[in-house]
């Protein structure tokens, strides 16, 4: 069975799957060669529920022509999310928006994590079922600014 990383919680709660840790322990498989950060997506209470199959990284593409038109150096793209905000404000013009991203939850979760923030309480859902989101907090304000309530 293959489950994507954020499906791990569903798999655990379903009770239909045997944790991968059972087979790791039975076979003495050494997981120390696998990337710890990637493993953590598939672990709960120090048990590995599935083997990491793949991992994704967000990439930023930008239009050098639009950078030049906005008076920005196309060879010096933004390096931080604060800079992305600043550049986006300069790039936004009429029907052209200076920044957009796919609405995959992990994009926003990772942008928050890079600031030392979590998306939801209960240790980002690892310590229990989350009941509160922090998207409206200070770290999430770039994503919620201007949204109608």
Topology (elements, then pairings):
Blueprint: H1 8-14, H2 20-27, H3 36-41, E1 43-44, E2 47-48, H4 64-69, H5 81-91, H6 105-113, H7 121-125, H8 141-144
Describe this structure in words.
Helix content is 38%, strand content 3%. It is mainly alpha-helical and 149 residues long. A hairpin with a 2-residue loop joins strand 1 (43-44) and strand 2. The mean pLDDT is 84.
Q: Top keywords for this entry?
A:
3% strand; 149 residues; 8 helices; mainly alpha; two-stranded antiparallel sheet
**How large, in whole angstroms, is the Cα Rg?**
20 Å
Enumerate the spans where pLDDT stays under 50 for 5 or more consecutive residues. Answer: none
The share of residues in helices is 25-40%
Helices and strands, in order, run as: HHHEEHHHHH
Strand adjacency order, main sheet: 1-2
N-to-C span: 40 Å
Structural class: mainly alpha
How much of the polypeptide forms β-strand, as a percent range?
under 5%
Q: Helical stretch count?
A: 8
SS elements, strand count:
2
Shape: elongated
Largest sheet: number of strands, sense, barrel closure? 2 strands, antiparallel
Name the average pLDDT.
84
What's this, in brief?
The protein is an all-alpha fold and 149 residues long.
């Amino acid at each position: 069975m293959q489950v994507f990383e954020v499906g791990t919680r569903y798999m655990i709660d379903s009770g239909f799957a045997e944790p991968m840790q059972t087979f790791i322990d039975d076979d003495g498989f050494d997981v120390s060669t696998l990337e710890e950060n990637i493993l953590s997506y598939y672990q709960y209470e120090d048990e590995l529920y599935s083997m990491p199959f793949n991992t994704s990284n967000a990439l930023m593409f930008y239009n050098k022509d639009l950078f030049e038109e906005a008076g920005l150096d196309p060879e010096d793209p933004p390096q931080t999310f604060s800079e992305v905000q600043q550049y986006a404000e300069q790039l936004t013009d009429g029907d052209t928006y200076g920044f957009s991203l796919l609405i995959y939850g992990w994009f926003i979760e990772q942008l928050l994590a890079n600031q030392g923030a979590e998306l939801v309480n209960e240790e980002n859902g690892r310590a229990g079922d989350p009941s509160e989101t922090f998207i409206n907090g200070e770290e999430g304000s770039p994503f919620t600014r201007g949204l109608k309530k």
